[in-house]
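Moderator note: this is an archived Q&A kept for reference. The question asked for a predicted structure of one protein chain; the sequence and the answer are reproduced below.
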Amino acid sequence: MLTVVICVNPLESICSDLEYPPHSPYEKNLNNLLNILSTKIPPYGFGLSILGNGVDQINGLGLCRGDVSSKDCSACVSEASKKILDVCTGSKAGIIWYDHCFLRYSHEYFFGKIDYQEEFFTYNPVFASNTKLLEDKMKELLNGLSVQASQKRTFFATGELVYDDSSHKLYGMAQCTIDLSTSDCKTSLDAAIKKLSSCCSGRIGARVKGGSYSVRYEMYPFLNNA
């Protein structure tokens, strides 16, 4: 019998240099916040919460990839809420990304804002045989998904297209956190697509993930509905 492991290791994490004292009200609020988000996110794939007041106030948000089931979302968020305490021990702000979800918290209010600061990208080291064609098709696919995602209630869109005469396909996705406005979702996705062009041009697969958006393309089906 095979066991599917949803969350093994995080893709990336970023922690603030600012720290809170051990056993402080902020630490208590953080632990409570992560417990709340672990329950709040899975049924809808997204959730946010605020706890505390003044210097002890903490803001948290989590998002699961739009094609992920509630069960797998729950497993990912549960793992993320544990891991972020390990990798960001004592930090007043942190964010952690997995393939199926991401989770973040901060003493600063960040809801409804595009976050370009917490961002990373990964790419396949292999280049396409025709890098110009792949670049053009990647933009065609993801630019279309940017429009679709920003117009959907879920802020999530997927798609595929044939990109050469050999019937090779390109698969893609675009997603925003649903606390953004429609225009900010589109703006952030367009910026992420431009980042892909600068960091990963001609690669046969790549992704950019930020604190409020995500875009990805591959030459193989990587989504549950693909």
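Archived answer notes: Residues 1-6 have pLDDT under 50 and may be disordered.
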